[in-house]
Write the structure tokens for this entry.
Amino acid sequence: MTATGIEGLDFVLGGGLPAERPTLLRGGPGTGKTVLALTFFCQGLAGGEPGVLVTFDEPPEALIQHAEALGFPLREYLAEGRGRLLDMRPNRADIVAGAEIELTAVLARIGHALEQVGGRRLVLDAVDGLDESFSAEASLRRELGRVFDWIRERETTTVLTAGEHADFSARYGLEDYIADCVILLRQEVRHRTMTRLLRVLKRRGGSHGTNEFPFLLDTDGVFLAPVTGTRLQTRSSEARHATGIAGLDAMLGGGGPYRGSAVMVSGQSGTGKTSFAAAFADAVCRDGGTVLYLSFEEAAEELVRNQRSVGLELQRHLAGEGGTGRLILEPLLAVELGWEEHLLRIMRAVRRLAPSVVILDPASALGDRHEDRQGKEMLLRLLYMLKSEGVTALATELLPDYADGVSTMDISSLIDVWIKLRREERDGRLSRRLEVVKARGLPTADRIQEFFLTGEGIAVGERGAVTGEGAA
């Protein structure tokens, strides 16, 4: 096997591409074929494995710029002699003999380049770009068969990219008997949001993931994380987090939730869900932990300003201006991205930042209003991923007034600690109440407690029982 350098893809492929064999990447425009091939090529050069990239479509300079945008100094690699980039864009005046293209000279040039650099990796980008240079489709099919036979004889791990056509198999025959591995890429658009998807159609000589996997493609490169599985594995810990609210810790048996657990705070608008999440973030940061706070409704400056009203000074935990940098605030507009892309971006941030706590505020904003089942599946996958990484997750949920306190997210099966906040109006006075619905493995209070949002913190039971050390 030959690793692609894309962690998630190598996992799906059972370790990597078939070594010294041809792999076909198929997909329509914008699905990421060239980026995947470039990443495979550049990862090899960076790891000391020379290679040759042949382009049948884009100019070489454009490919170099694409690679540099992804963080690969391809120009330097080529200057150092680690690899070669060959421009094989069809030119009928040069390479057409009679009515048909002649590939012998093309293969000889590629073979010479491989010998020069001692190439172990080969990329043929947009190989179907040769189509217009043939007088008959059967000729292209026959000639591509020669190319694949030549690749096997060279014992070079090769990636070929090609566009998607309705009659692809019949037209080129690559799936049927030539390619050892076929990876399909496509775009899916739902409710005006686009998701890129990858599926391994076949892989000779080894097992592979059979599902269709979403992946990200941006300036940070390619990120693919398998988000389905059949084994339930999570990390357990005896250590606990303080919530930053003394009265709530008392209701949870004298301490907060276990580290690595999933916590949900549900409530109607105005019940203080964000203040509970902010108090927890403040307590974790003061205890030396790192918090990734994903806000889907408030900008970072708004969140910091608004939480000063309950005695929380979150600015001291942010990076810069004397802050500790333990709190990472990332505002995201939930409606602008598909739910799969949200999932992947959060997973990538967790892998990059390695926080001890992730806060989703409100997680209910991520639920797909058009596809309730998909929204639920996304949140379940995300919470399971965080738990499997040993990361504590706290999600807030907005309960509609008409729901009568019933959760609409339907993810309580994976929640370890569920806290429900209520808003009541009596005799012209607003009263807020707190209930611990469940807390796995913890002794919990069976009483519903009143709580207050004060300038010195969140007080549970009595106004004097404020948020411990959380006040500014």
About this structure: The longest strand covers residues 193-203. The chain is about 30% helix and 25% strand. Confidence is low (pLDDT under 50) at residues 95-100, 467-472.
